[in-house]
């Protein structure tokens, strides 16, 4: 499991570093092209790539911070700090990426400036499309490797590693933005109407705002705390219920403390004939078997509790509570 986790981390870093290097180069080229041609949509795309570069740096920083070991103040570790930085990325995409694009589009529509020679824009857009396409291909392959047979959208909602789907979302938005910018620049020259370029900038802003909303929604769920995969929860329940000395499982509650770390709290009704020593030995046996079966489980809490005494926090019996 340790080797698999390290391998997954390395692949995730490759995706982030690939996107970072591509975006830095693309941002510089876009700003130069915008300065030479006066294109509003190209300037918006430059800021888009610059924001994406900052986002990759924040995710790499978040991954590093999340690897810190548990201590007295944070007994379950710092894994969820990565979720905080993912939420910051969503805010930046909206506030900077979408905000600047909306502002540039409105400014160009209010005070249109005729575009100069579009050749530079087309060259830069073509190069940017190739680089973004390469980064997007890497992100798609890595995400497809981890999602298995699950659908793409379901895999995004179920994913506990924000770095994987954030890069995928950002690269998809970048490719869409490049197409919109190219269409806007072409139409502005074709019909000699520079305001079309401003409209293209507004469309790019709308794309970024939609992506930011999706990222914020997923990051919020991870920050609040999401349960483990339902299949894992049910398998844990089945294993505990099948243990000698357990008469019933009241509830199995889980929460991700990091993308690859799960805390499990189990309430089970033990056989009344068990002595205290036998009960302690049974708990130890249950914990050992669960750790062997599910290496991602970082902490286990097993509480012997009668069915009638177990509630879900609302006063209702917890025998059917999973999570």
TrEMBL record:
Ranges annotated as spanning the membrane: 12-36, 82-103, 123-144, 165-187, 199-216
Extract the Pfam families matched here: Cation_efflux, ZT_dimer
Q: List locations, semicolon-separated.
A: Membrane
InterPro entries of this UniProt entry? Cation_efflux (IPR002524), Cation_efflux_CTD (IPR027470), Cation_efflux_CTD_sf (IPR036837), Cation_efflux_TM (IPR058533), Cation_efflux_TMD_sf (IPR027469), SLC30A9 (IPR040177)
Q: What is its main location?
A: membrane
Q: Does the keyword DNA repair apply?
A: no
- Asked if the record carries the keyword Phosphoprotein, the reply is no
Q: Where is the Cation efflux protein transmembrane domain?
A: 19-223
- Topological relation to the membrane, as annotated: Multi-pass membrane protein
Positions in coiled-coil regions: none
Q: Which UniProt keywords apply?
A: Membrane, Transmembrane, Transmembrane helix, Transport
Domain spans labelled Cation efflux protein cytoplasmic: 229-305
- Which family is this sequence assigned to? Belongs to the cation diffusion facilitator (CDF) transporter (TC 2.A.4) family.
Q: What is this protein called?
A: Cation transporter
Source organism per UniProt: Sphingomonas mollis
Higher taxonomy: Bacteria, Pseudomonadati, Pseudomonadota, Alphaproteobacteria, Sphingomonadales
């Amino acid at each position: 499991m340790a080797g698999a986790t390290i391998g997954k981390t390395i692949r995730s870093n490759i995706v982030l570093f690939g996107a970072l290097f591509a975006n830095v180069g693309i941002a510089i080229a876009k700003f130069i092209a915008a300065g030479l041609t006066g294109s509003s949509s190209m300037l918006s795309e430059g800021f888009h790539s610059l924001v994406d570069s900052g986002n990759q740096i924040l995710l790499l920083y978040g991954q590093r911070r999340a690897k810190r070991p548990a201590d007295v103040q944070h007994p379950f570790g710092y894994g969820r700090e990565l979720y905080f930085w993912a939420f910051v990325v969503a805010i930046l995409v909206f506030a900077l990426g979408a905000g600047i694009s909306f502002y540039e589009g409105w400014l160009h529509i209010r005070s249109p400036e005729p575009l100069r020679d579009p050749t530079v824009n087309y060259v830069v857009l073509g190069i940017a499309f190739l680089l973004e396409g390469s980064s997007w291909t890497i992100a798609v392959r890595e995400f497809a490797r981890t999602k298995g047979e699950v659908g793409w959208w379901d895999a995004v909602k179920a994913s506990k590693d924000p770095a994987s789907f954030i890069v995928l979302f950002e690269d998809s938005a970048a490719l869409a933005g490049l197409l919109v910018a190219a269409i806007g620049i072409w139409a502005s020259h074709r019909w000699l109407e520079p305001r079309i370029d401003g409209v293209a900038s507004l469309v790019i802003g709308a794309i970024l705002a939609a992506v930011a909303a999706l990222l914020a929604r997923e990051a919020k769920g991870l920050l609040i705390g999401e349960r483990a995969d339902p299949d894992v929860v049910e398998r844990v329940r089945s294993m505990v219920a099948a243990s000698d000395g357990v008469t019933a499982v009241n509830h199995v509650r889980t929460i991700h403390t990091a993308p690859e770390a799960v805390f499990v709290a189990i309430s089970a009704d033990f056989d009344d004939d068990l002595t205290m020593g036998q009960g302690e030995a049974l708990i130890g046996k249950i914990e050992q078997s669960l750790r062997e079966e599910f290496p991602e489980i970082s902490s286990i809490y097993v509480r012997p509790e009668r069915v009638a005494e177990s509630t879900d926090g609302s006063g209702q019996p917890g025998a059917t509570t999973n999570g």
